């Protein structure tokens, strides 16, 4: 399924794998590919660590589901040893896949919770079903992304 500049990939990719989004007509089989940003600068040298960061949904419990409407999520970001990681920038989004349509989205307002590595996120989940919550660390030194599925009842 595709909508505008978005394409659904249903198989063949693993989390974190790179995808060619432009210039694919110029690709030659077995050629080396450089990863660049929109300013056409290589981003390989600026690559931040991702494997040592854990992003956890503290509440609500993803197994029990949440009621439809206003929702407050609590997220913790920890290092490889399980210690809170004092990060500056956490972005979150909420979306729900829709059959034959673009996904439904909900704005998410993220604020520090007063403890290192802990954030509160307020959103409105206005439809029953499975919502995908994406949390992404975007600090200069640390980058990580985690998705959670919440069943809205």
Brief sketch in words of this structure:
This is RND family efflux transporter, MFP subunit. The chain has no helices and ten strands.
Topology:
Layout lengths: L1 E2 L2 E2 L46 E6 L9 E10 L11 E9 L2 E6 L1 E5 L5 E8 L3 E10 L4 E10 L1
Antiparallel strand pairs: 1-2, 3-4, 4-8, 5-6, 5-9, 7-8, 9-10
Pfam families: YtkA
Organism: Hyella patelloides LEGE 07179
InterPro entries: YtkA-like_dom
Structural write-up:
- The protein has 153 residues and is mainly beta.
- It is built from no helices and ten strands.
- It has a four-stranded antiparallel β-sheet with strand order 3-4-8-7, with no helix packed on it. A four-stranded antiparallel β-sheet has the order 6-5-9-10, with no helix packed on it.
- It is globular and about 50 Å long.
- About 4% of the residues have low confidence.
- This is RND family efflux transporter, MFP subunit.
- InterPro entries: YtkA-like_dom.
Features:
153 residues, mainly beta, Immunoglobulin-like, 4-stranded antiparallel β-sheet, 0% helix, globular, RND family efflux transporter, MFP subunit
Radius of gyration: 18 Å
Oligomer: single chain
- The share of residues in extended strands comes to 35-45%
CATH-defined fold name of the domain at 54-152: Immunoglobulin-like
Which residue ranges are poorly predicted, with pLDDT under 50 across at least 5 consecutive positions? 45-50
Looking at CATH, the homologous superfamily of the domain at 54-152 is Immunoglobulins
Strands side by side in the biggest sheet: 3-4-8-7
Number of helices: 0
* Sequence of secondary-structure elements: EEEEEEEEEE
What shape does the CA trace take?
Answer: globular
Give the termini separation. 26 Å
Question: Major sheet, described briefly?
Answer: 4 strands, antiparallel
């Amino acid at each position: 399924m595709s909508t505008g500049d978005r394409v659904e990939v249903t198989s063949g990719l693993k989390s974190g794998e790179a995808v060619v989004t432009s210039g694919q007509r110029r690709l030659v089989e077995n050629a080396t590919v450089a990863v660049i940003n929109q300013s056409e600068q290589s981003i390989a040298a600026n690559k931040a660590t991702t494997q040592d960061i854990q992003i956890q949904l503290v509440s609500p419990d993803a197994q029990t589901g949440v009621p439809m409407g206003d929702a407050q999520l609590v997220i913790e970001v920890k290092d490889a040893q399980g210690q809170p990681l004092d990060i500056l920038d956490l972005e979150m989004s909420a979306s729900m896949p829709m059959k034959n349509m673009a996904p439904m989205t909900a704005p998410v307002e993220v604020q520090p919770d007063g403890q290192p590595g802990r954030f509160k996120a307020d959103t409105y989940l206005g439809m029953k079903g499975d919502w995908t919550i994406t949390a992404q660390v975007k600090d200069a030194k640390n980058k990580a992304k985690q998705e959670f599925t919440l069943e809205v009842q």
